[in-house]
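Hi everyone,

Forwarding the result from last night's run.
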Amino acid sequence: MASRGIFPNVYAYSIVVDSLCKEGKVKQAQAVVAIMIEKGIEPNVVTFNALMDGYCLRGNMTQAEQVFRLMVRRGSMLNVRSCNILINGFAKKKQIDRAYKVFKGMTDMDLTADTITYNTLINAFYKAWRIEEAENLFSKMQVATNIPVFKPIIL
């Protein structure tokens, strides 16, 4: 590609980062991000979300949280998907209070939780047998969203 004057941009690199992370190759993905920065290509929210999701998929919440904090420091880097990735990662590790803390912090970042955010937390609360908290959050979701929602059924 380079011989033809075609060079990868942030979107091409982000696809590579995402693919590596989904394959469990988070260290290689981190190396690709480092190469991007070396070449003067600034990673974007998609790049960082992919990296954060890769860490979450591997259960490495410390690294995922570091990526999240880096995004917060960069200001406009965060979106609802960023929060959902971290919330889901904490929920899967049964760290529900930490997931809920991210949810509560969304308003400070001018982000509005979506149904994915609510459903992830409600599901985590139910799985932890924190039924009252799940019910309260479900009620808040009904008020906050205009999308029809359904209660999860515990068998």
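The helical segments are 10-22, 26-38, 45-57, 61-73, 80-92, 96-105, 115-127, 131-144.

Cheers,
N.
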